[in-house]
Amino acid sequence: QVQLVESGGGLVQPGGSLRLSCAASGMIVSRYSMGWYRQAPGKLRELVATISGRADTTYADSVKGRFTISRDNAKNTVYLQMDSLKPEDTAVYYCNRYPSRANYWGQGTQVTVSS
């Protein structure tokens, strides 16, 4: 059974940084494309970043140059480094495979950017 557990969220001021972690069990993250997604209040869930099995990365235009997705194969964990955070980055952040699998969604981690 696959379980993805997100952590690292919190309250941060605009311009600040956070690093999110996604610890996986029941699957080996390096064998699949993985993604970070987010859902802001009243909005649909959107894809933020992906990392392929070869470690190729892609980013949504809204976070390009500010966010970095990475992976630690030894820890079976995917990360999202978020810098220069903006209020519009406020959302619950989730990780999943890319494309996502319906039964892989975890609880997510709340990121709030506010002064």
Task: Give a brief description.
The protein is mainly beta.
Features:
115 residues, mainly beta, 6-stranded mixed sheet, 4-stranded antiparallel sheet, 10 strands, 48% strand
Silhouette:
globular
Approximate strand percentage: over 45%
Distance between the termini: 40 Å
Counting helices, strands and paired strands, the structural category is: mainly beta
Strand adjacency order, main sheet: 2-10-9-4-5-6
- What kind of sheet is the major sheet? 6 strands, mixed
What report would you give on this structure?
The chain is mainly beta and 115 residues long. 0% of the residues lie in helices and 48% in strands. The chain is built from no helices and ten strands. A six-stranded mixed β-sheet has the order 2-10-9-4-5-6, with no helix packed on it. It is globular, with a radius of gyration of 13 Å. The N and C termini lie far apart (40 Å). The mean pLDDT is 97.
What order do the helices and strands come in, and which of them pair?
Blueprint: E1 3-7, E2 10-12, E3 18-25, E4 34-39, E5 46-51, E6 57-59, E7 67-72, E8 77-82, E9 91-97, E10 109-113
